[in-house]
Amino acid sequence: MSSKSEMISRLIGKMTLEQKVGQCFVIGFTGTMITPVILERIKRYCPAGIRCGLTFRIKTAYYDPYATSPEFAHRVIRYPVGTVKDFVPGLPVPECTNEEYCAFLNTMKKASLNNDLGIPLHITMDMEGDASADYPRDGIRFFPSCGGIGRTGDTKLAHDVAWAVARELTSLGVSWLHSPVIDVNTEPMNPEIGIRSYSEKTSEVVKFVSAALKGFKEGGIVATGKHYPGRGASSQDAHHGLPVIKLSRRKMMEDHIRPYAEMIEKGVPLPCIMTAHTAYPEIDPSGLPASLSKVFITDILKNDLGFKGTVTTDDITMGGIAAKFEIVEACLRSLNAGNDLILLREESPLIDEVIPGLVKAVKKGQLKESRLDEAITRTLSVKYDYGFFKNGGIRDVKKAGDGIRDPKVINIARSAAKKVQVILRDKQKLLPVSRSKKILLIEQINPLHRLVNTQECHPSLLWENMLKYSDNVINVETSMDYNEDDVKRIKRRLGEAELIVATNYYFRRSADGGDFIQRLHKMTRKPIIVVANTHYPQALSKEFKTVILTYGSSPECYAEAAKAIFNKQVRALACTMY
After folding, report:
1. Where in the chain is the domain with CATH 3.40.50.1700?
2. Cβ atoms 145, 549 nearer than 8 A
3. What's the CA gap between 224 and 270, in Å, rounded?
4. Burial label, 198 (beta-carbon count in 10 A; 0-12, 13-18, 19+)
5. What CATH number matches the domain at 3-404, 3.20.20.300, 3.40.190.10, 3.40.30.10, 3.40.630.30?
6. pLDDT per position as a tens digit, 492-515
7. Most C-beta atoms within 10 A of its C-beta, which of 205, 309, 493, 562?
8. Region of poorest pLDDT, from 99-113, 314-328, 394-408
C-alpha cells in the first residue's frame, strides 16, 4: 500500500458517519464576513470544500423566482434560523483587498485543519471568462469567453489564459475551479452554454479543452470539466427546469461524450468532472437527469471510460433537480448514482437538513457506507496529488496579489483581448469611423461592470475608450433589455448624431436588445454599428449589417472594440453559420 493510500485509509478510519457524509459536500458561502455559522459547519460536518463568491449575495439563486408556477420553490427555500444570515439577495458584497480576502480564506482553512481530522478544505470558484467571474475584485484580470478563444484557432492562447486564471486565483488561496466548459455547443439557440463552449465542433473542443486543462494544471489549480455528458444540444436552461436531450446513444458518444473519452484515454489532466442536470432518455430510459443517473456516472463514466478522478454534481438546488426531487432525496440519489461530491451553493439551513438526512439513509440501508468511503477516497486522492496536505492550503497573505499583479498575467489578458476581437461584417463600409463624425453610443450596463464598478471596470467603459479617439461621442446608458424609459432617453438624443454605435450583449438570465436595435434602425434609418459578445443568434440578427465582436467584458476587450471602431486594426471574420 502506497503512502497516499495509507494516509487516506487512516483518515477515513477516523471519521464519524456524519463527517463522512460531510466530506461529500461542497457548501456555499458569499461575502467576506466570517460568521459563527460557517465556522461551526466546517468544524461539525467537515465539508470537503467551500464554493466562495464575491459577486452578488446568493439566495435561492437557482430556481426561477419569476416563474408563473414555482411549485418546486419549497424544495430549496429554507428560511434563516439562529445566526444564519437573513440578507437581502442581489446586492453586491462588500469591497475587499486581495490580502483581506486571502486572510478570510485562511481563517476557514484553519478551522478545517484544527478539527480532529485536519483534512485540508478546498476553496472553489468559477472563472469561465467574459462575465463569469466569482472574484471580481482588486485589480483581477478578466479574460474573453471560451467561444472567443476557440474562434482564434490558437490553442496556446487557451493554455495561457487557463494558466493566468490559475495564477491569479491560487495566489489568493483558491485551489479548485469549476471550469472549463467541455460542452460542444451544437444548438445555436442554447440559452445556457453558447460562448461558454469553445466550439460547435467536437474535435475543436477536444483540442482547446486539452490545452486549457494543461494550463490549469501548470498553474496549480484543480480543474473541473463540465457538464458531463454534454449540454451543448439543449435549448433549455437547467438552472430553471429539467432539460431533455433526445439524442441517440451513438450521437451522444460521437459528439458530446467523446471529449471526455479522449482526454481520459490520453491522460490529459482532468481531476474532476461535473455532471449535468439534464435527462437523456435514449440512454437512460428512467428519465433521471445524468447527475442522478447510475447509467451515466458509474456505468459509462467510471466503468466504461475508466475515469479515476472525482465526480461532482452541479448545484443541487438548480431548477433541473428541484423541479423533481426534495433536497435530501436528490442528494441521496446523487451519491448512489456515483457522484463523489455534491455542490450545495445555496447559503441557507439546507445543509443542516441534508447531512442528518443522509446519515439516517445510511443507517436505514438506503446508502452504503462503502459508497461514501469510495467517494471520499477519490476526492482525497486529488487533494494529495495537488499538494493540499503539504500546508493545508494556507497562503501567505502578503503575497495574495502577486498573481493578479504578475506582468505575465497582465500581458496575457491584453493579448487575449486583441486576438479574440473580430469585425464580423461591415456590409455598409462604416469602418473605420471618421473622428469628426457625431456618434450616439447606446451602451447597455454590462452585469460585470455594474458589479465591479471601479475606475478600471465600470458602466460606460466603452464610452471611456471611444473618447480616447474622438470627442464627438454622446453616451446613453441603458438596461440590458432596453426598457421603455431607455427608449425615451435614446429618442431624445437621436437628432444629435450621424451614426449610432449600439451594444447588444447576451448573458444568461438577461434579455438581449436585438429586437430594439432592429426597430431603432427602421425608426431612424441612420447607420448602426453593433458591438456584441457572441456570434450566436440570441444577440446577433442577420439584419445587423456592421458587427464587432468583443467576446469579453474586460477593460482590455473594450479598448480593442474602440480601436476597431476608429482604426479597424482588427481581424475580419466572415460568419455564414447564423
Report:
1. 421-566
2. no
3. 7
4. buried
5. 3.20.20.300
6. 999 999 999 999 988 865 555 667
7. 205
8. 314-328
